[in-house]
Each structure stands twice: as C-alpha cells, then as structure tokens.
Amino acid sequence: MKRREWKRILSCASAAVMMISVLGGCGKQAKDNETQTSPETAVEESAASSETVSQEITFPLKEQVELTIATEDGTVASLANNLPLWEEIEKRTNIKINWDVTAPAQYVEVMKLRVSAGGELPDVMLLPNGINLGELGSEGRIVPLEGYIETYGDNIKAMYEEFPHVKSLTSADGHIYSINTVSENAYFMPYSFVVRKDWLDRLGLEEPETIEEWVKVLEAFRDEDADGDGNKGNEIPFSVGGHAWYTTFWAHAWDLHLFYSDGWYPDENGKMQYEFISDKAKEFYTWLNKFYEDGLLDPEFLTMGDETKLFEKVSRNEVGAFLAYPSTIPQLEAALAANGVEGAKLVPLVPPKGPYAQMTEILGDVTVNGYVVTESCKNPEVVVALIDYLMSDEGKELMNIGIEGVTYTREADGTVRFTEYVTANPDGLAPAEVLSAFGCQLGLPYIMSTERGEAMLFEYPDDMRERFVEVSEKTRPFAHPTLILPPATEEESSLISGLMGDLATYVWEMTGKFTVGTADIDAEWDNYVSYLRGLGVDQILEVKQAQYDRLAK
C-alpha cells in the first residue's frame, strides 16, 4: 500500500544520529542493536525514537496524553499486562493507554449495559454487535470522525482508497463514526477444502475439481481401504468441525452465500435475497441429504462442538477430507506422525465447481466491528492520529509482526523472517500465539498485512509453502467477500429488532434436520418458507435492501 511520503529530518541526540519519520512515512526506525533477541531488551534499550507529524500533532507528544480504551481482551495474553508491543507504541507516541478489557464472551452485554446506563464512557470503545451505530450517533454518544480524518488521517484516507468496501461503514446520516481494521490478507490462504493426498495416491485417484468428482473420491474413501490399515469401511470420508453451519460451505457450488454471509445477498439485479428460502437452497439441501444418507458425511457432524473434535479425528487417521484453514496443516501432519501414521500428506484444494458456480466465501477485507470515539473523549484528534499512525507502514509492521530484531528480521531482499523467539517458543506457543502475547493485532484498528502471512509460510517446508501460495492464487478469482452493509438507521433497527436471532436459530435447526432426513424436504419445504416469513424475513429484507441501496450509491 502506498503511503504518503513525508520529508525526513535528521536530528542528533546523545551523540546518536536518529531518523525521524513523519506520520504516514515509509521509513524504518534506525537501530543501534540489530541483533537483539528478547522483547525486554528491545523495549528497554531501543535507542531510536520515532517522531510522527500530521498537521498539528507530533509523535512523541511533548506532553503525555492518557486514553481509556474499552475492548475485548486478548485470548493468549491480556492487554492489561503491559505487553511489549504496546509499551513500544507508548514510547514512540507518548500516549498512555489504560485498557478497559472484558472477556470476549461477556463484552457485548457489558458494553450494552454501560451504554444504556447513560453515564460516562471510555474515550474509545470497540463497538459491539447489537448496539446501533447510527442511533448512538444521533444521540450524540459517539463523535463523527470524518473531520478529524480529513485533518489528521492521511493514512486512513489512503486506506479508504485501497479498500472500497470501507465506504459501507458510513452511517445513513453521512457521518463516519467508526474506524475498522481492514485486511490485505483476506484472499490469502482462505478457509478451504483439505484432503488426504496420500489416500488419493493409495487409491490411484486425482484431486477432485467438481462436485461430481468429489462425490466419487469420497465414495472411494468410504468403500476402499483408503487409510491402508487392511480394513475397508472404517474411514470417515468427509467431516466438519462445529455444527450444521459448516456443511453449508458446499452450498457455494450452488451459487449460494450461506456460510459467512448468512444467506443475505443481492442477486444480479441488485435485489437483496434471503437465499435460505430459494429454489437453489432447496436443491442444495436435497443434495446434502443424499450426501449424508450415502455415508459420505461424518454421522457425528451435528455434535462435533468445535474444530477440536474434528482435528482429533484427523490426527487419529480417521478422516479423508474436511474444512479448515491451510495454516492448520503442519500441526495436523505432525499430530498424525506422532500417532504413528507414516507419509500422511494433507493438501488444500480450490473450491469445487458445481451446478451453478465455483466460488468460496471469505471473511472479507473489513471487520464488522469498529472502534468509535465517545462523547467522553477530550482528545478525539489524538485518537485519530494514533490510529493513523498504526495504519502507516511503520505502524502496520508493529501491529502485524512486532519489533525488528526481536520478533522478526528483514533480509537484504526485504523478506521477513520470524526469530526463534516466535518460531521456537519455549512455552510451546504457536507463532501466531507468540505474536498475540507480544501484543500484535490487538487493541485498535490496523491493517492486517499480507506480509505477516507470507512470513509465517517461511517456517513451512518448501513444498508445503508453494502449495499454500498456489491454492491461494488459484482460489482468488472465485473468492466472494462477506457482504458488509452500511449501518442501519434507528428506524430500520426498530423494524427488525429481535428478529435476526430467532431466524438464525430456526434456519440452523432445519439445516440439520434436512441434512439427516428427520425433516422431509419436499413435504416440509413450503411450511419451512412460510414459517421463516412469519419470523420476519420480509421485514429484514426491506431493511437490507435500503442498506444495500445506500452502499450501491
């Protein structure tokens, strides 16, 4: 991503020559010690300072500013623990952050209560699902940010140009109330079909490319001795982690967006549809039922809970194909080897071509939940300038890969390689967990970097790395990002209040029943559609259409 090139200034301090980069600048901080390997040493001994200027705001600030930020806590290490990365950001900006953290499972309800109470709010907060952005704005509880972005947000504006989906975050009243994390990485190693290549080779089968070829491969896994243990029929051809929702990943071959987009998607004429009640959905469910009845789908798929049980089955040499992020493959192959399975090889595949489409859904390049500045904040310009810094090249590197010389090194050709602190963690943490515990990708909006994903690949064997890149590139033309609509107005929210949850509950219940045959598709389809309409499908579609029309302008 291009970043505005600001003029570089040389200054002397304590006989050390330091490069001073201006906010949004592309330069990297000069270091006295390029070989340092511990986060403590890096944070304590860093000789370089980064001065960042955007209009009237210069980092580090001459006088410290404190901000209270409410957000979900990290899953590996708490933001409240003075993580090395955020200590470094404080040093470079002179902004002290007091983290107001809540466990992810409780965050939504906690913040709803705090907002409804009407008292003082934190300076900045992650906006949780269920709190209406436009309503908060109309009530004056959160601050419009477009003016601050215009003055202090050159990198944010550059991000808006690069990620056009971000315009969906503009509220119906024309204001920008939230700044969201965006992802350069959305199309890199998407959620994929994964197959046991050694099982294919043992049975003399090619990698499947179409729905028909997939069925033939899975029938062979069902009927033949695919695992090579001398017993036919003890293999699970295809499995999923979670619940009925995961089976709908197959629906992409029917041109249905049921997985990440939850069935709300515009047709070719820009008319919003609820695809779960479409003729194509009925056709897909009919196929899925046969898929199950023919013994190709794990009979326990409805009770798998999460991916933990799936990965346990994969590790025990029971599963021939499944759904997962390709990044899980090295760990799964290692687990198979530890269980005495020699020569096990897992490969990701491009999405299958079906009767109507060949596509896959991805999470998209914009996160749904953004950060807002509340009416309680005395320094909204500082908040915007800080987020702008995190979206500069320097900030992006900090947020994604940490501190150079500590968590990563950069080779002469620019290639990033993680240090042993990340790749050989003494506590047994995976690289992503190490970086999270360091403070990366936590706390405030940033740009998720492709560079991070590429750096992760260098720890994999050459053939595996090449495969990941190959599949990512081959999948890209078929990738459909999650549809993110502009915020609903207060009136729109009132029309559909409480409807979405009931709708989703019933849909996923019926998805399971249609799949296993406890509900007859032909006999019960009309009642299924009628019941969903009674739950408010048409009201929701009216609101979704209005939102989409604002997006399409």
What can you tell me about this protein's structure?
This protein has 22 helices and 21 strands. It has 553 residues and is of the alpha/beta class. It folds into 2 domains: 9-186 and 366-448, Periplasmic binding protein-like II (D-Maltodextrin-Binding Protein, domain 2, 3-Layer(aba) Sandwich), CATH 3.40.190; 193-351, Periplasmic binding protein-like II (D-Maltodextrin-Binding Protein, domain 2, 3-Layer(aba) Sandwich). The strands form 8 sheets. The chain has a 5-stranded mixed β-sheet. Helix 10 (279-293) crosses helix 20. The longest helix has 18 residues, at 499-516. The radius of gyration is 25 Å and the shape is globular.
- Major sheet: arrangement of strands: 6-5-7-17-8
Q: Report the sheet-strand fraction.
A: 5-15%
Structural class by SSE content:
alpha/beta
Shape annotation: globular
- What is the rounded Rg? 25 Å
The level of helicity is 25-40%
Highest CATH level, the class of the largest domain: Alpha Beta
Mean pLDDT comes to 86
Major β-sheet, in short? 5 strands, mixed
The CATH topology annotation of the largest domain reads as D-Maltodextrin-Binding Protein, domain 2
Number of structural domains = 2
Quaternary state of the chains: single chain
Number of helices: 22
Please state the second-level CATH architecture of the largest domain: 3-Layer(aba) Sandwich
Strand tally is 21
